[in-house]
Amino acid sequence: MPPPENADKSSALGSKEATDSVQDLGLCSWNDEDLDYDEISVLSRGPKGLGSAFFVRDIIDRYTRKKSTTFELIADHLQDTMFELDVNRNMRLIEDDTSTIGYKDIYHLRDPLKMLRDKAEAEQQVARHDILDTFIRCLDDMFAPLDKRVAALLEENRIEYELLWTLFAPKTIAFTTCRITKAPCATRVSRYSNTINRMGQKNFRIEGHTFSGKGEQLCFLDIPVFESTKRIDSLSVYPLCYHPQVTAMRERLVENGRRVMAWTGIHHLQHSGWALPLYHNGNQRAQVLEGRIVVNRVTLDNEPSPSISISCGDEELSICSPTLTGFALTSLKRYVVAVDNLREVLWMDRPLAMPGRNGQLVLDLVNCHYRQKENPPPEGSSQPQEQNTTILLRGPPSVGKTMTAVSIAERCKRPLLILDAGSIDANLAVAESLHNEVFANAALWNAILVIKNADILLRTSSIVSQRNTVIGRLVQRLQTFDGVCIFVENQSEVQSRAEPAPPVNCTLDFLPLSSESRKEVSFFRLDQVTPSQSRSNKEALAEALAGTPLNSHQILKVVQTASYLGSDAGNITTQDLDRAIELQSGVLNSPHTPSASSV
Known about the structure:
Blueprint: H1 16-23, E1 30-31, E2 36-37, E3 40-45, E4 52-60, E5 67-73, H2 76-84, E6 91-94, E7 98-102, H3 103-107, H4 110-122, H5 126-155, E8 158-160, E9 173-177, E10 184-196, E11 202-212, E12 215-224, E13 229-231, E14 238-239, H6 246-262, E15 266-277, E16 287-296, H7 314-318, E17 323-328, E18 333-338, E19 342-344, H8 358-374, E20 389-394, H9 401-412, E21 416-420, H10 428-445, E22 448-452, H11 455-458, H12 465-480, E23 484-489, E24 506-509, H13 515-529, H14 535-545, H15 552-565, H16 574-587
Parallel strand pairs: 20-23, 20-24, 21-22, 22-23
Antiparallel strand pairs: 1-2, 3-4, 4-5, 5-7, 6-7, 8-13, 9-10, 9-14, 10-11, 11-12, 15-16, 15-18, 15-19, 16-17, 17-18
InterPro entries: ATPase_AAA_core, DUF7025, P-loop_NTPase
GO molecular function, one term: ATP hydrolysis activity
Domain ATPase AAA-type core: 391-482
């Protein structure tokens, strides 16, 4: 619309008179013909001879009485500058080849505009410099009261809800925590807005981007409305520069980003901390997850191929997602885990020695399988291209059969998937779905698959047809599985078989624990429960437990109880073992069980 009649058309853009006119604007009147508010505008001109540079337009809502201010850019130098600052997405094109940008958007652009003004002066671009200089002086005059108000709040590290927008300039790195794992994370701010949720609560919404191997991903973060003022570092989201330990936190975020980018593909890792089941109902919450986990990012469509090299700077690394999806080897479930809770696997320094010289033969057999897997024979060779390796471990319960399978995986540095055939009774549909996932993962990860209670698959019994169907399918999968499979059987002999069982490469019979084998079992359990204890201490404690009549499971319980009773964190003494054995003897009604110190 045309400017007011009393506007000084020869005045310089951004003069004190023009600024006062903006501040003294009254309410707009409603125009019944146009069904819109009448705009009150101030027309200013640039330096003499350069024509109009921009308009400042104010509109005041008839209900809320809130004033909205926009800047209509006319001069080509101003429009080109805005596009150079990459803020064209915040600009709206209007008629007559002009552009408009909002009051809040231009607030964050004053420093970049001053840099471009100085650059124009250095390059002797007189017209561009004069227009930018006049525009910046006008902005400084308009924002002076706001700057003074914000500066007083920031001096006390506080902010008002209505002024939150002053903190979040575009491309600001904002700090927050993951709502699932509570891990620290950051996002690059794109824009912000005021929203109202379903409960009618006002929120300040931040639209940001996080970084992954595929690129940037959109995220939304809300700050609920609050009264008076609030400490900036107590907000659910705030600029990273206001963090109490900004340098240390930035380094931590960058380090987590490096891990995310390094763990592209399949990685066998150690997890310790809170995790959330991936497929969970509404009542299930995050839980503590301790143990081995496999991060498998090969089969996900939104992740890059391991062969693709991705290079990014510290800023991109700092806004990497704080979580990954992993498959827990103990519970056989998928979890959302925090990157900060993941570490490289520390393999056991002394796995369990298997009975006799057969132990080394079994290890050689498994190692030979993986060597052939990694270096397949040439095409046309008479040697089979793919074949499985099956091992049968049988003997009385709690004599170290499963531990032997664990020791094989430790020596070979392979993931270990343990499937209990006895769980078929629980839920047939869930059991079959689990079997499908376990076999697929074992093949993809070159993992060692252990089937506990394998006698259920091999003996004849009167079971319902549906269970027979599940067992039959499981046996069929075992016959076509081309990895390493270890059967653990609690019977010394197999009388008859319900299904054609897969042939085995070797069978290892276990006898009741001897003093020497019990010592190896004890060392293994101590290494599991107290990995930080010195090797010499573990050997001494294992020697003390070797003379007790405890089986493998009882030794595990004794070691766990002793670790709870121990006064020295992470270490167990012989006295702790004695107390744990006494407690277990009372529970088991075996008062004559010898103590570790009496041996």
